[in-house]
Design goal:
4 strands; 4 helices; alpha+beta; 4-stranded antiparallel sheet; Nuclear Transport Factor 2, Chain: A; disordered N terminus
Length: about 120
């Protein structure tokens, strides 16, 4: 998974959710360019094709990607959390932005959903 340290930029929830969704969708589709296109240089430099492929495989095991729902938002800390839903499970998306609005940290954590 990708490193999780940095500071970020205050943005509206829809814009930050779009950023988180672009990375999550990119990972699901095993598309390294889509994963890294909105990341700062430091974070983008840590992402490998193998890592994205492994993450994509784990996500596909959860079924079809159904999108994100906001869980928490802290514009002052530039930290955002979303629930990524799949047909057979979920992952928590944790993201931080830098002062330029680039993704400086991104992490997916598998979740147990209560039915």
């Amino acid at each position: 998974m990708f490193a999780m340290l940095a500071v970020g930029c205050a943005m509206g929830a829809s814009k930050t959710q779009q950023l988180a969704d672009s990375v999550t969708s990119g990972a699901y589709n095993n598309d390294v360019s889509a994963v890294t296109q909105n990341m700062d240089d430091a974070l983008a430099g840590t992402v490998t094709r193998r890592e994205v492929g492994d993450l994509s495989d784990r996500m596909h095991a959860l079924g079809d990607y159904k999108g994100l729902t906001e869980v928490t938002s802290d514009d002052n800390a530039r930290k955002y959390t979303y629930l990524a839903r799949f047909t057979k499970g979920a992952m928590m998306v944790e993201m931080r932005l830098d002062s330029d609005g680039k993704i400086a940290a991104y992490r997916l954590v598998p979740q147990q959903l209560v039915q």
